[in-house]
UniProtKB/TrEMBL annotation:
The lineage of its organism: Bacteria, Pseudomonadati, Pseudomonadota, Alphaproteobacteria, Geminicoccales. It comes from Marinimicrococcus flavescens. This is YkgJ family cysteine cluster protein. It comes from the Bacteria. Pfam families: CxxCxxCC (PF03692).
Amino acid sequence: MDGSREAELPDCRTCGACCSYSREWPRFALESDEALARIPERFTDRRLHRMRCDGERCSALTGEVGVRTGCAVYEVRPDVCRECQPGDDACLMARRRFGL
Ligand code: SF4
Ligand code: SF4
């Protein structure tokens, strides 16, 4: 990827749209029990096998969408969050929802 294309990609640190788009998104998939155990329990909904959400917003999301955001469990976040790439279709759909 050249530098100019990279410069066009949205910056997750001032976004957070995909983490606030749907409570159905931050679902666990094929993570091992050990990987899931590393995510602090207060941020998870083990019964529903996903991150705990407040409305549509993941409880681990910090900050204000579209301004400054972070992930409180970044180092141990679920697989689906690792797969989400800035600029892909899901990213752009989520950003549109928030007018970004
Ligand atoms: S992947 Fe896209 S929608 Fe998700 S935080 Fe990054 S820029 Fe925003
Ligand atoms: S765990 Fe982190 S990266 Fe995944 S949806 Fe929640 S805030 Fe976003």
